[in-house]
Specification:
73 residues
Amino acid sequence: MESPARPKCVSCNMTLEYLGQLPLRTGGMSGGWEMLIGAFADLDERVVSLDIYRCRNCRKLEFYDYDLSLPER
């Protein structure tokens, strides 16, 4: 999906610079569960990609889900 026009920084209203996509792991289990039940701990694991933008002025990072890949809550 193509991302919309570049967003503006919520802090200083400058146009944000696109840095690319960041794969983000959601779901699964960590810690002792993985040692206890092995690969079954990661059955509900997903990887979603978030679009990352940075403000050149204040260095703030902002994340957007333009592909709507995060689960609904």
